[in-house]
């Protein structure tokens, strides 16, 4: 069951100005605090995301990272076996092999 954050609009109770509560996604949004009955509003919470930081992690997840090096030249920092290190505009043989990365 998801956990939602609510914020007291005026006075707040022993739960604090902001409190969390478990609710079904189908439950109605609270308009009053279940503890003190004062007015509350739902807050938008931060979401925890795990973003790969190293080029090898990005490559292992199946992504390609290109870094601009010069006008029309990009370095493939997640280069796989058989791929060109640099991708150049107008040279299709330097484009990463997407069909080798994506499989059924």
Q: What is the count of β-strands?
A: 6
Secondary-structure element order, N to C: EEEHEEEH
Strand content: 25-35%
Helix amount: under 10%
What does this structure look like?
The longest helix is centred in the middle third of the chain and has 6 residues. This protein is mostly beta strands. A hairpin with a 2-residue loop joins strand 4 and strand 5. It is built from 2 helices and 6 strands, in the order βββαβββα. The protein has 2 domains: 40 residues, no CATH class; 43 residues, no CATH class. The strands form 2 sheets. Strands 2-1-3 form a 3-stranded antiparallel β-sheet, with no helix packed on it. The chain has a 3-stranded antiparallel β-sheet with strand order 4-5-6, with no helix packed on it. Helix content is 10%, strand content 25%.
């Amino acid at each position: 069951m998801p956990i939602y954050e609510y914020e007291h609009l005026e006075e707040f109770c022993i739960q604090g100005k902001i409190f969390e509560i478990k609710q079904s996604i189908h439950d109605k949004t609270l308009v009053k605090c279940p503890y003190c009955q004062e007015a509350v509003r739902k807050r938008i919470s931060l979401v925890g995301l795990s973003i790969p930081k190293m080029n090898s992690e990005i490559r292992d997840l199946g992504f390609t990272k290109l870094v601009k090096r010069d006008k029309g030249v990009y370095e493939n920092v997640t280069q796989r076996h058989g791929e060109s290190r640099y991708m150049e505009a107008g040279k299709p043989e330097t484009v990463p092999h997407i069909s080798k990365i994506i499989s059924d």
